[in-house]
Amino acid sequence: MTVGVREQPRGADSPRPRPGARPGLVGWLTGLAVLAGVGYRLWLLVHAAPPTNSDEATMGLAALHIARGENFPVWFYGQQYMGTLEAYLAAPVFALAGGPSLLGLRLPTLALYALFLLLAWRLTLRLTGDRWFGLLMVALLALGSDRIVKNQLIAGGGYPEMNAAGAALALLAVDLATDRPGRRSADAGRPGRRLARWAGWGFLAGLMIWVDPLVLPYVAATGAVLVGFCRRELWGAAGVLLGAAAVLGAAPLLGHSLLTGRNPLHAVLAAGGANATAGWPDRLHGGLVLGPPLGMGFCAPGQCATWQLWWALALPLLLAIAAATAWRALRTPDPDPAGPAAVGPDVVSPRVAAATRLALVLAAVATVGAYTVSSSAGLTPVESSRYLSCLLISLPALLWPVWAAARHGLRPAATGRRGVGSTLARSVAAVLLAATLGTAAHATGRAAQTVPATRAAEARHTELVSTLRQLGVRHVRAGYWTCNRLTFASAEQVVCAVVDDTLRPGFDRYPAYRREVDGAAAPAWVAPAGSPLAEVLDERQRSTPGSLDLVTIEGWRIYLPR
Fold first, then answer.
1. What angle do CA 522, 524, 526 make, to 5 degrees?
2. C-alpha 374 chain-centroid distance
3. What is the DSSP letter of 551?
4. Which residues are 528's β-sheet partners?
5. Do residues 138 and 186 lie in contact, with contact meaning Cβ atoms separated by under 8 Å?
6. Would you say 533 and 499 are in contact if contact means Cβ atoms under 8 Å apart?
7. What are 417-462's pLDDT values in tens digits?
8. CB under 8 Å to 314, separation ≥6 — which residues?
9. Among 60, 64, 67, 165, which is disulfide-ready with 95 (CB 3.0 to 4.6 Å)?
10. How far, in Å, CA of 189 to CA of 268, rounded?
11. Which comes out higher in pLDDT, residue 276 or 376?
């Protein structure tokens, strides 16, 4: 006797309310979970958490230049990949607020998170029809470990928008495959809406190719769903419109490549570690053991305890089970290929739902595989685990078989009766879901505990900016992780050029700052207290007494040339 995960008919155990009806308990709980997720992140932003850095400040400076009409960058300053969409979203905020701020830079990323949460909820309902499972997904995505909130809130390029775009691409693919010609659907007779969806999918796909290539597995996977169910339509106006919209979305990338002759793929490969080497044991450990728990929100800030690594063992099993159950459902014909007589907006063909779940699983496999073979997984596994942020898009597909087993157990193929194996499966599935929520909640609590220290560090940096203004300092030299953050926080009233720990010129993402500082009469030096740069400057002060005046504030040392 063979067994399999029992999936109830879509919507059979979660009746949908009539239009205009009051939301039930599950609706209210889902709304509260959404508010909790957004509210938690808003609380973080008000307290200047997660901590900012010079890379985020670089995006803020791009937004400032756009708001002033001084520059309209295609790429993140200092490189030839990673589009500046976040800067263009923040520029209107800066213009309305009358100047730049960290909160203003991050408000668009908070909006993108809220959009992702709603899209993920909607996608879950379309794929499963189970509102309680939708609540579980919202609750899980409302939690936020250190790595998760950094990906979602820091405007450092690409990460905040990728998840929202990936979920939207999957949702549009489901809608287009469900309401395809030949099915009697809610959109029958409304080709304008359908063409708008084709254009929307194409534009988002092109836009993400410009913004960050990490989402490409999800572009390819959801595109495969469209090809599988709508290939005939793609030969007509829909395909032309999709292609034109994709070109429009990727226009910044295409235009820059044509004008400069540069291939952004080369820069992407270099960023992924193609120019460096790492041993395969380190890559496998970083990509398969450490990366998934860190990147998916199950670890404390900057580290993973041994017990938190259980997700690295669970993920391959979840991927295999989700792929097998989706493939089995995909091979089962729909009861009525033409669709029911009155298809509502929440009803999806079981084969379309299964194909989309399978696509999300394969995209997750491709994401983990690409990260594991990169040298970044072996060289910087903690920080580069951010490359796995798109895996959150696949959570509904990964956990749906577990949820189905927890609610309905296993179905014996011959008798349909439940036995000891079914009861055991329900217990194991329930424990797995509880462990997933519990581990994510623990990591969220640990992240929240770092907020006071982050707020204090931001207050010290604010005091640094104020002190430099009081001293009349306009030009400074400092380390990479100080420079652009200082320039952004001062709204370019203090301009900084990068130096390394030996006082030699470093990497300036915006070369104009270097030219301005080099042309200044007597730039100051700024270094974090206790840093190697501060030690070198202290030694210079001791070896040549009277050459530098030292001003100290908590956490910082300012060296003023005489």
1. 165
2. 19
3. E
4. 556
5. no
6. yes
7. 555 667 888 999 999 999 999 999 999 999 999 999 999 999 999 9
8. 432
9. 67
10. 44
11. 376
Helix (H, G, I), strand (E, B) or coil at 78: coil
CA dihedral 481, 485, 490, 492 (to 10 degrees): 90
Q: Which residues contact 401 (CB under 8 A, 6 or more apart)?
A: 5, 7, 318, 321, 322, 325
3-state secondary structure of 248: helix
Eight-state DSSP code of residue 23 = P
**What does the buried/exposed string (b/e) look like for 458-486 if buried means 16 or more CB atoms within 10 Å of the residue's CB?**
beebeebbebbeeeebbbbbbbbebbbbb
The residue count for the chain = 562
Contacts of 222 (CB under 8 A, 6+ apart): 166, 169, 170, 172, 173, 201, 356, 359, 363
Q: By mean pLDDT, which of 20-24, 77-81, 192-196 is the weakest?
A: 20-24
pLDDT at 474 over 50: yes
Query: What is the pLDDT averaged over residues 137-142?
Result: 97
pLDDT at 487 over 50: yes
Look-up of token digits 């909130």: 149
Cβ–Cβ < 8 Å for 63, 100: yes
SS (H, E, C) 173-240: HHHHHHCCCCCCCCCCCCHHHHHHHHHHHHHHHHHHHHHCHHHHHHHHHHHHHHHHHHHHHHCCHHHH
Q: What is the mean pLDDT of residues 339-350?
A: 55
DSSP labels, 400-437: HHHHHHHHH-EEETTT----HHHHHHHHHHHHHHHHHH
Give the predicted TM-score (pTM) of the model.
Answer: 0.91
Distance of CA 275 to the CA centre of its chain: 25
Contact call for residues 73 and 510 (beta carbons, < 8 A) = no
Going by C-alpha positions, the residue among 409, 370, 404 that lies closest to residue 387 is 370
Helix or strand (DSSP H, E) at 346: none
Determine which helix (DSSP H) or strand (DSSP E) holds 73, and give its type and residue range: none
Q: Each residue of 269-305: pLDDT tens digit?
A: 555 555 567 788 999 999 999 999 999 999 999 889 9
Q: At residue 98, what is the residue type?
A: G
